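Entry type: protein chain
Record version: 2
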Amino acid sequence: MSIKVDIVTPEKMLYSGDVEMVTLPGTNGQMGILHGHAPLLSTLDIGEIVLHSREGNEYLAVSGGVVEVRPDKVTILADTAEAGAEIDEQRASAALERAERLLAENPPPHRVPEIMASLRRSSLRLKVARRHQGRRSAEGLHFEGGSNT
């Protein structure tokens, strides 16, 4: 049985559709949600959202937010989120190199958490972009404002 998933950012509705399962990066760990899941409200961490469908998996990078789970619907209100198709791999790679360089320069202690968060976000974006390129099939998944190629 499928479950309805809506993913919304402050800028747009990123995704709305039915999937077999959704995997989320909760602040207390990874969560897998299937149809009939108990109601839940949780915060999201920086991580990967995976939309599992019969046509294949779609990967999204998310950098926090909240998720509301009901037995028949998952609503994700993301601080920022990007589908793999939207991520520029070269920009993500350059951001990762910048963050690594800043960290290697022995920054003041008050800057370390900010640099580490940047490192996590850019590493995640690069991972999701590469997964998208390796994905075999995404027919049936439609992203608002993105492409399925």
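Comment: The first helix runs from residue 89 to 104.
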